[in-house]
Design goal:
131 residues; 5 helices; elongated; mainly alpha
Length: 131
């Protein structure tokens, strides 16, 4: 039950059993989708800090009317930060030969990326404008 957007970005790599690059492309695709959604070019931490600003968030995923809602919002930022720092950046600095990724790890990563895509499916842009 992998989100269709995951495979949009990495089906070629996945189908050729190139799991290292499949994971890398899946996460790059997720961040590309987020950047397109909020119309920003920033990436990584800077992008996430702008999108998930506590004072002026650029997206909403819920009403933000309770601590639970705010925790869910911050949790999505943390999920994206985890994917960016622990997998995308890590893989960007390692060679495939020194970092084989097996099918089980690939599917675990795809599940996390799918969850983030499902949040983006229901996200709405806010009316805040960056200056």
């Amino acid at each position: 039950n992998i989100h269709s957007s995951v495979m949009k970005y990495c089906s070629k790599e996945y189908l050729s059993n190139n799991y290292f690059h499949a994971c890398f492309e899946a996460i790059k695709g997720l961040f590309s989708r987020l950047k397109d959604f909020v119309n920003l070019q920033e990436d990584g931490n800077k992008l996430l800090d702008l999108v998930f600003s506590k004072e002026r968030p650029l997206i909403t995923i819920n009403s933000m009317s309770s601590i639970t809602d705010k925790d869910e919002f911050e949790g999505l930022k943390n999920l994206l930060l985890f994917l960016h720092k622990s997998i995308r950046n890590y893989e960007a600095h390692k060679t495939r030969l020194n970092n084989e990724v097996d099918l089980d790890r690939t599917l675990d990563i795809f599940v996390c990326v799918s969850l983030a895509h499902r949040y983006l499916d229901r996200a709405q842009r806010t009316c805040f404008v960056l200056v």
